[in-house]
Amino acid sequence: MKIYISHSRSFDFKSGLYQPLMNSPLAKEHEFILPHAEHEEPFEIKAALHSKSIDLIIAEVSFSSTGQGIELGWADIYEVPIVCIYKDGTVPSGSLSVVTKRMLMYTSTENMLEDITKLLQNYETNY
To answer: Fewer C-beta within 10 Å: the chain N or C terminus?
Structure first.
């Protein structure tokens, strides 16, 4: 499955999100698109969504971001499923309920990976 990882730039996403995902068994089973792993320029997500080359978006929404909101709006228009994850103790934007009902709270990096693993197993079984 090809999964785009959406996030704010307001936190250390490379060590808090990218590294845990890429060091987990999930990286062997799925292709993660990490938009800022190597470049700071915006990823051409709109073209990828239009070409139907993204199966799922996992959005880390602990920190509000206008750019991320635009990405999620485009994903909604192109009918790409969106799942939001957020760290315990943060309050995600209420506007997210417009694009998804799937919100997962995590308490630690390990818990985040467990939740994503279960989510993807369920997603593959049901979709």
So the answer is: C
